[in-house]
Amino acid sequence: MSEPQSPAFAFLEPGDPFPAPGTVTEELGPLAIGGDLSVSTLVSAYSQGIFPWYSSGPILWWSPQPRMVLQTGQFKLTKSLRKTIANLHQTGRLQIQVDGHFQTVIGRCARVPRAGQNGTWIGQDIQDAYGELHQAGFAHSVETWLDGELAGGLYCVNIGKAVFGESMFSLRSDASKIALAALVALCRKHRLPIIDCQQNTAHLASLGAQEMDRQEFLTRVATLAQQPTPDWSFTPSDWQHLHPHILR
Question: What Pfam family does this protein match (any one) (predicted)?
Answer without folding.
Answer: Leu_Phe_trans
